[in-house]
Amino acid sequence: MDTTVTGPGRPHRPGISHRYLYLALIGIFPFLVNGPINARIAATPWLYWSFELTIWIAVPGAILVILLRDPGFRLADIGLHTRVFGRRGPGVVAVACLLFAPLCFMAYRSAFSLFDSWFPEGGFFHYDTVIPDSGPARYAVITYFAMSAGLVEEFLCRGLLYRAAQEFRWPRLFFMLVSPLLFSLVHWESGLANLLATWVYGLCMAGALLWLRNLWPLIAGHVATDLLWFS
Q1: How far apart are CA 175 and CA 207, in angstroms?
Q2: In angstroms, rounded to a whole number, what is the distance separating the alpha carbons of residues 163 and 108?
Q3: Could you give the CA distance from residue 161 to residue 37 in angstroms, rounded to a whole number?
Q4: pLDDT in tens, 67-121
Q5: What is the DSSP letter of 88?
Q6: What pLDDT, in 10s, does the model give residues 140-173?
Q7: Which end of the chain is more exposed for a tag (fewer CB within 10 A), N or C?
Q8: Among candidates 34, 64, 33, which has minimal Cα distance to 156?
Q9: Which residues are 5's β-sheet partners?
Q10: Which phi and psi angles does 82 have, rounded to 5°?
Q11: For residues 187 and 195, is the Cβ–Cβ distance under 8 A?
């Protein structure tokens, strides 16, 4: 019987349903439409933050609960494990995260600087508009934005889509086409420069997941990138 490998050494029988793809799309869909909504409700803090916590915490949390109740699913299938390049252990993953994080920031900064020089300004909603100007609240909001984006976007746009790709005939091709595209579309409300920069960034991150087979360095890099960018 033909088999494909999903996760580290996990056999998968072709022909099963695309339930992982559907779950990923359910989680990603609110981020495709939240730009216009955020632009309208940003001036009403309680409404903005209720919506924010629903789509960034409640919905992804529910998807994770559904996945964990699936007997055929393992966290290792989406890259959440402690093995990198054949070496195992939290220390190995920590080193990979420390080395990878600055590369992520430089990749995004370079891509955005290039495209922003071609397509300056633009967009109708930017998250920095809801970050307080100073004080503890500023650092709390920046930390929340960085952590939620790093964890949730990497979980949905990289890890879960990687697992979903194993249900297709050419999983790597599917993943490298779909993951960067959806990741960039998540950021469309902030303008063409950021749309293109996040596509390049998403392409690099998708390739990195295929290379590392571990999601933790991507999460660390994403969190670090947003922390530095918003700060």
Answers
A1: 9
A2: 25
A3: 25
A4: 999 999 999 999 999 999 989 999 999 999 999 999 999 999 999 999 999 999 8
A5: E
A6: 999 999 999 999 999 999 999 999 999 999 999 9
A7: N
A8: 64
A9: 11
A10: -120, 35
A11: yes
